[in-house]
Amino acid sequence: MYLYASGKSRIIAYERAADAVEHLSSEAKDLYDEGKLEDIPGVGASIAANLSDIFKTGKSKHFEALLKSVSPAVFELIPLEGIGPKLAYKLVNELKIKPPDAISKLKKLVLKGEIAKLEGFGEDSQASILKAIDDYKESGNRHLLNYAESVANLIVDWMKNDASVTRVDTLGSLRRKVSTIGDIDIACCTNDVSKTIEHFVNYPDKKRVLDRGDKKASIIIPGNIQVDLMAQRPNAYGALLQHFTGSKHHNIALREYARTKSKSLSEYGIRNLKTKKLKKLASEEEFYHSLSLSYIPPELREDTGEIQAAESDFKNQTPGLPKLIGLTDIKGDLQIHSNFDIETSHDLGISSYRVIIQKAQELGYEYLAFTDHNPSRSKHSDKQIIDLIKRKKESIEKLNYSLMHNNKRVISVFNSLEVDIKSNGDLSIPEAAFDCLDFVLVSIHSVFRLSKELMTKRVLQALNHPKAKIFAHPTGRKLNEREGVELDWDKIFDYAKENNKFIEINADPMRLDLPDYLVKDAVKRGVMLTMGTDAHHVDHMINMRYAVYVARRGWAQKVNVLNTRPFKDVKMLLI
DNA sequence: GCCGTTTTCGGCCCGACTGTTTTCAGTCG
């Protein structure tokens, strides 16, 4: 096959270029328009020409020609666990599998025992292909961060039962706090590696053992979640943590960086390529410092400039690494739904003012905002809506009065509302109702599909209202369910910065919206962010940490987030 | 195919695990 016969290096080159394009902070199309495609790392004259071809004509002659020699059935099989390009190609060609439905055709052949007859395959590989096909059917989406955390915690607890284990950590995307998680990675610091592996594969709630070696093992647990465990002795545990925290892109970039210093990195430590000596490292801090880099927090390890920043940080030069925001910096929750019934358009909260206030005090907050949805438009006249919002205003005034006089710790409550942005950019409450509110959040709850231009115009018009201060769950995405809306973020961020508007990071694990990569853009542009849990039940208020994770992944510092500030500052900026 | 404060040619991140073979290729993270 031409694609492979022409060399592995070219494949790697294309993969690198594809990764670089995917990780671009700007659109490749914009770079094409400016004639700067070759500025993308890994993109040279040849790949730039192919890309130009695609932007110009919608397709690439080069790839159309190449793809003629490969059946589409090959690409259908590659997603199967354990099937890569070579095996897929071999199976399709030797068994004459035709698209579509290559996977189910393959399954029929497996059940007939045709695979084991092929050269290079046997009974075992045939069985593992069958398992891969069955798993593939059951496996669906990536898992939400909070779910993955809860599953991982059970396994962490199980591993702590092993007496030889001195420390357990979650690694991979879970440690980097990515919003959705594929596999769960766990590291064990142990004095007896083989005993620890044995303990792991005996996890009571496993479905089956996928791999099992001397140093690592993988199991499948219900829900078809793969759990990988790596075990290491204490003296090299830092190298293991670093290696399996990733991301893949970070590690590749870091190893390339290390090579410029004649060093080679692995999960065992740092090898000096001149002396061939391996330096084992017990901690990650030592690992990074040995490369003349400042310690890089896991959330930043995506190869988006953190290595360069850590290098200059280590030399005390600017720009260094950001001093990332932490959960304890948060002084209030700016999106909470109560059960005070104003006959809302979307779901009402479940918990009362009283229990929410109590929880806010437990969390050490100075303030919070009650941001119930606006009264439903279809079921009420303008006057009824205004009356409902007046009732809410009076109830919160009473609440604030009693808080001032009855509590040891003063907590202040903003009287706010989460107001729907209608498809034309109007807000869903009558003008007179705004007088009863401190400020409002505006958000999209309908008509998610509009052109980028119209959607941007819609949001800017909504934000133009003097009481509209926060653009809540800005993309409207729901993880695993719905893509976000299309917006011209440059325009939204510029407008927000110039007009004292704030962009929310919604902490609901199903949303995590603004997404991390847009947070990074917003931070770079000096846009001020807010955080809200969007709690509809008092128990959701502890979700604030997820917003903090997103902010950290977006390089945000305390100064970038409004609700790290004391009440009087926040009041001044919102009212 | 890309890339260079050792290089415009000769390399390209690193190692574990599996299955099918007797020394390794393919896949994965």
TrEMBL record:
Manganese among keywords: no
Identify the GO cellular component terms for this protein. Answer: cytosol
**Segments forming domain DNA-directed DNA polymerase X:** 2-302
- Do you know which CDD domains this protein is assigned to? NT_POLXc
Provide any one GO MF term from the record.
Answer: phosphoric ester hydrolase activity
Mind listing the UniProt keywords for this protein, alphabetically? Nucleotidyltransferase, Transferase
Q: Which InterPro entries match?
A: DNA-dir_DNA_pol_X, DNA_pol_lamdba_lyase_dom_sf, DNA_Pol_thumb_sf, HHH_MUS81, NT_sf, PHP_phosphatase, Pol/histidinol_Pase-like, PolB_thumb
Q: What is this protein called?
A: PHP domain protein
| Organism from which the protein derives | Candidatus Woesebacteria bacterium GW2011_GWA1_39_21
